[in-house]
From TrEMBL:
A Pfam family it matches: ketoacyl-synt
UniProt keyword list: Acyltransferase, Fatty acid biosynthesis, Fatty acid metabolism, Lipid biosynthesis, Lipid metabolism, Transferase
Domain Ketosynthase family 3 (KS3): 2-410
Any GO MF annotation of the entry: 3-oxoacyl-[acyl-carrier-protein] synthase activity
This protein's GO CC annotations: cytosol
InterPro entries, per database record: 3-oxoacyl-ACP_synth-2, Beta-ketoacyl_synthase, Ketoacyl_synth_AS, Ketoacyl_synth_C, Ketoacyl_synth_N, PKS_Beta-ketoAc_synthase_dom, Thiolase-like
PROSITE patterns attached to this UniProt entry: KS3_1, KS3_2
EC number, UniProt record: 2.3.1.179
Biological-process GO terms, alphabetical: fatty acid biosynthetic process
Source organism: Chitinivibrio alkaliphilus ACht1
Name the record gives this protein: 3-oxoacyl-[acyl-carrier-protein] synthase 2
Task of the protein: Involved in the type II fatty acid elongation cycle. Catalyzes the elongation of a wide range of acyl-ACP by the addition of two carbons from malonyl-ACP to an acyl acceptor. Can efficiently catalyze the conversion of palmitoleoyl-ACP (cis-hexadec-9-enoyl-ACP) to cis-vaccenoyl-ACP (cis-octadec-11-enoyl-ACP), an essential step in the thermal regulation of fatty acid composition.
Origin superkingdom: Bacteria
Family, similarity comment: Belongs to the thiolase-like superfamily. Beta-ketoacyl-ACP synthases family.
Length: 413
């Protein structure tokens, strides 16, 4: 018999807030974390806006001497992981560390470190390449750092599936807990890809918004004026554990994780399958795993990237999956406020989904001003909406045709 899995801790640093409390307050207030880009300067790159994390002293999470030797995406993960662990009180319960895992995904990893050291190689020679290049750069190191700091000796790895990375990481942890491989696991994602190289690459694909004159309006999912996503950075980490383990140690239980779907489009490098066919299969798989009907879902935290193709195809996929109930659902894209955190987006969006259940509030899609033809669902335009929320589906889709859907619901003993 599969074990039940619950969420007992959450932590985040992202453009809207540097804690779960600050993040949630910002979301329901419709606060945009997007502004003019400051991480680098290059006027030749057409997108000059970003959702950047500010106001974090990373020496609170890593020894001050180690901060410069550690890539930013790892530091962001360390900050989120510390909040999640403190929130869950897991380490205070003296768990069997061999049965506590760490699965923290990243779509890109330490690209800023790679870019800096490649420049050193070309301009100053091989001896000026940092000996810390490889451990700073590789995408699994956020998970490794968290595991080492806290002595977590269970399964420890990273999922890399572009913008679905953290949702797949959460799904992997969920399935391993259900199967009895672990008692608890830190899951989520981290991303710090606001670099000149990654911006140049995404800009060459014409994937980024170029509405530089109005940064806070630039991310506008489902709106007719949407012209691309806005890059964000940050991390989201959750503590999930078996219900038995959580009850045994008297842990706070915020919600129950019940559904997971993962599919492949087998269609195109960057464009979704027509009408969101792969997303439909992912959502249906999550519903089957959760043993619930489409009508049981109250809210969908959409992938909602603010790109013409995603928003059109995700809306079509929701209509196919949910039928008439699609028009009774609340839908929103919190990327309208955070920007797109790539491999970390699914984790911070699941945190928002859990908060929607706990507080009975749907966070809005801000900048929704000009409805587009065929995009006619309730996208919770501009203002948070109070509603009883029992079950939420959170969607994440990534380049390469990676689809992930998670279902979380109010905990009932």
């Amino acid at each position: 018999m599969s074990k039940r899995v619950v969420v007992t801790g959450m932590g985040t640093v992202n453009p809207v807030g540097n804690s779960v409390h600050e993040y949630w307050d910002g979301l329901i207030a419709g606060k945009s974390g997007i502004d003019t880009l400051t991480h680098f300067t290059d006027e030749k790159i057409p997108s000059q806006i970003a959702g950047e994390v500010t106001g974090v002293d990373f020496s609170e999470y890593v020894d001050r001497k180690e901060v410069k030797k550690t890539d930013r995406y790892i530091l962001l993960a360390m900050a989120a992981a510390q909040e999640a662990l403190q929130d869950s009180k897991l380490l205070e319960s003296a768990p069997d560390m061999e049965r506590v895992g760490t699965i923290i995904g990243s779509g890109i990893g330490g690209i800023d470190t790679l870019e800096t050291n490649h420049s050193n190689l070309l301009n100053k020679g091989a001896r000026r390449v940092s000996p810390f290049l490889i451990p700073m750069m590789i995408a699994d190191m956020a998970s490794g750092f968290v595991s080492m700091k806290y002595g977590l000796k269970g399964p420890n790895y990273c999922v890399v599936s572009a913008c679905a990375s953290s949702s797949h990481s959460i799904g992997d942890g969920f399935m391993a807990l259900r199967a009895g491989m672990m008692d608890a696991c830190l899951v989520g994602g981290a991303e710090a890809a606001i670099s000149r190289l990654s911006y140049a690459g995404f800009a060459s694909m014409k994937a980024l918004s170029t509405r530089n004159e109005s940064p806070q309006k630039a991310s506008s999912p489902f709106d007719r004026k949407r012209d691309g996503f806005v890059m964000g950075e940050g991390s989201g980490v959750l503590v999930i554990e078996t219900l038995e383990h959580a009850l045994q140690r008297g842990a706070p239980i915020y919600a129950e994780l019940t559904g997971y779907g993962a599919t492949g489009d087998a269609h195109h490098l960057s464009s979704p399958a027509p009408n969101g066919e792969g997303a439909v299969r992912s959502m249906n798989m999550a519903l089957r795993t959760a043993e619930c009907a489409p009508e049981d879902i109250d809210y969908i935290n959409a992938h909602g990237t603010s790109t013409p193709m995603n928003d059109k195809n995700e809306t079509a996929a929701i209509k196919t999956t949910f039928g008439d109930h699609a028009y009774d659902l609340s839908v929103s894209s919190t990327k309208s406020m955070t920007g797109h955190l790539l491999g970390a987006s699914g984790a911070i969006e699941l945190i928002a989904s859990i908060q929607a259940i706990r507080e009975g509030i749907i966070p809005p899609t801000i900048n929704y001003e000009d409805p587009d033809e065929g995009l006619d669902l309730d996208y919770t335009p501009n203002t948070a909406n109070k509603r009883t929320v029992r079950r939420v589906m959170s969607n994440s889709f990534g380049f390469g045709g990676h689809n992930a859907s998670l279902i979380v619901e109010a905990f009932r003993e």
